[in-house]
Design brief:
The chain has 182 residues and is α/β, with parallel strands linked by helices. The chain is built from 4 helices and 10 strands. The protein has helices at residues 39-44, 53-60, 97-106, 117-125; strands spanning 4-11, 15-17, 46-52, 72-76, 89-92, 110-115, 131-137, 145-146, 157-164, 170-176. It has an 8-stranded mixed beta sheet. It has a two-stranded antiparallel sheet with strand order 2-8. It starts with a strand and ends in a 6-residue tail after the last strand. GO terms for molecular function: 5-amino-6-(5-phosphoribosylamino)uracil reductase activity; dihydrofolate reductase activity. It comes from Marinilabilia rubra.
Length: 182
């Protein structure tokens, strides 16, 4: 059964980027063994990615090859005339359960909600996130773009696993608790 998953890095104080969107702090921690913190294993389990337009444009601005060539990508934007620039990419103009169900139906594996924070909160508020993998980076930013902006609704999750790495990163895997109200 297809699951909708969030895999995202966050600072200890809950930010996913600096105020200007910069991600330099993610690479500031020493990583002599080039540990990928579970990314490769996670990526093998997905075939669809969903992201907000700002995240999409940020990735395009990295000046690298499109990192999701084997996945169907959906960009969420309210701009109905928005043109995507990458292969296997479509636009979702509305983020509702009824617009996600066909996406979920087409997926043969799992769906990754890539970001940003507003999209993550929207998925939470719709009750659509089945699993969260949070990579806690041992950094306090003090301010930035929050992981859960715009007052997400109270949602119960159950800790499935915690994994530590020599880099100081901790991965926390939470599973949604279906049919339970907080």
């Amino acid at each position: 059964m297809t699951k909708i998953k969030l895999f995202i890095a966050t600072s200890i104080d809950g930010y996913i980027a600096r105020e200007d969107g910069a991600l330099d702090w993610l690479y500031a921690i020493p990583n002599p063994g080039q540990t990928d913190h579970g990314y490769a294993d996670f990526y093998k389990e997905i075939d669809t990615v969903i992201m907000g337009r700002t995240t999409y444009e940020e990735i395009l601005g990295f000046g690298v090859e499109w990192p999701y060539p084997d996945c169907q990508t959906y960009v969420v934007t309210s701009d109905e005339f928005y043109e995507v620039k990458t292969p296997n990419t479509s636009v979702l103009n509305r983020l509702k359960k009824k617009t996600i169900e066909p996406v979920k139906g087409k997926s043969k594996s799992n769906i990754w909600v890539v970001g940003g924070g507003k999209i993550i909160t929207a998925f939470l508020n719709l009750g659509l996130i089945d699993e969260m993998l949070l990579s806690i980076i041992p950094t306090i930013l003090g301010r930035g773009i929050p992981l859960f902006p715009d007052a997400p609704k109270e949602t119960l999750f159950e800790l499935e696993n915690a994994e530590t790495f020599e880099t100081g990163v901790v991965n926390l895997i939470y599973r949604g608790k279906p049919n339970q109200k907080p």
